[in-house]
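Lecture 7 notes: from sequence to structure.
We start with the chain below.
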Amino acid sequence: MARRIFSVSGAVVHHDGAPAAGIWVALVDADPELDDLLGVGVTGADGAFRLSFTSEAFNQEPGEDEALPDLYAVLSVAGDKGPVPVARRALHGLSFERAEHLGSLTLPAQPAAGKPAARRLSAMPGSGKAARRLRLDAEIVAHASAEIAPLVEAVTGWSGLLQGIQFEIDEEMADGVRRYASALLGREISAEEWPQVETAYVAIWDPVGARVFLNRKLLEAQNLDYLKVAIGHELVHVGQTRNHPAMDAEFRRMATGALTLLLSGSNARSSAEEWSFMANIEGFATYIEEHYLRRVYTHASALPDIAAMATSRFEYRRGKRRVDRAVADLASEGSASPAGPARHWGTTASQYTAGCAHYLSLHQDGRPARFDPAARPPPAMDAARARYLVRRAEDGCTTSQFGLGALLLTGEAGVPADRDAATRWLTMAAEAGHPKAALVLASILPVQDAERVRWLRIAAAQGEAAAMSELGKAHLLGSGIPVDMAAGFEWAKRAAEAGSLESMDLLAKLFTEGLGVAQDIISARLWKRRAERVRSAAAS
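Predicted structure tokens for the same chain:
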């Protein structure tokens, strides 16, 4: 390749030389001001880890032009609120003329969980900044897919997964998902209908057009190994649909029905049969991802995307704007109830977990289970699945942490409700950058709580329209943050553009009254009409 790929591997051992499992390893490039976080992962039973990356990963700041990274590793043990750093290991003398093996990194003799090894040592240095760790283009996608496909084929028993498929890079996935949804429905989806369709996918397989859509915005905040695993997950779906045409036809029927209900504005939930059908499909892909792909690519964990986390600062002269009564009335609405979103996301997360646990139960003598299109994992969370979910959460899987937290919050799928435990798991996931975990945490806090604003920022930074909407209202009303009308307008605008109907109405009022923006009656009418069209499309 014209672009250079850097690779490192190593192992973490205890003071006596025994492999150290379950240790968080952050690989970081040291810079004079802000260090660059390249990847974070957890060691397996053999204590091993590995990471591949490109030069973008260690040149994250404007003007940086390093030829080689100056690496160090931070070793952390699991704590009650996430990884606790216990040691920093400098990695000098790396030429990167070939893949570098770092040898064994030794833990302190008795790492004290809960007590950092040194002052100011972070478990994930460089995680609190906006970062572009990858340049997503056809060249790097070809490299990643060519490397991951043989591994997926080996563990699934399928072949030729890359034959006849195309990879298409979408700026924020909106266009890709719209084209996929339009293909399923057999018609173009209008702009008025479109805001109701979820677009926060990292990648998605379109069996109708034989395309894998990749989300540039989300993937460029991650590293090369994350891209490989994301492609690998979608290649599992390629194998499912190609090798089981009857299942593919049933999936398209269900997806078309669900999409039709969504565009009609219906809040109807899926049936038990539909839930189990999707649990089988997504659960098998998750099983392959978690138990094979991520054990090879240990540092493919999602890294925080902080692109818009800090509150924008805008010029605002107090006293020259008045708050419209309709905007002030928002204060009486309070925080949105967590029951709806947490139940939806908890149930969705439990699909992945239930299906994955089903295939894990078929895993024997180290041989991977084979996909069974007729399998229907039950919704109930039995003891084996609960243990599996907890184990994956403890290993640092943010999807499992979020799923466990959401289930504990709502008491879904036979899991007893436990708000304290739910908050603990959701916090772990949100601190690692999981946007929906952050949004659920914000929804269970009082509107005047400053911590709520912090979670909203994390979720809004990764494109959650509901979080943008709530963050705009918080700025307008001074809920947990000083009043900043201009910032409130900007967040409301982002939310409206992302499809929030509530924010479209709010934006029309802000333009009408000149709140946080110059009065603009024409723009007010445009946003009001857009909101009306969305309502009309949903009702038709």
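Points to note: The beta strands are 6-13, 24-29, 36-42, 48-53, 71-79, 82-90, 100-106, 166-170, 203-206, 211-215. The mean pLDDT is 80.
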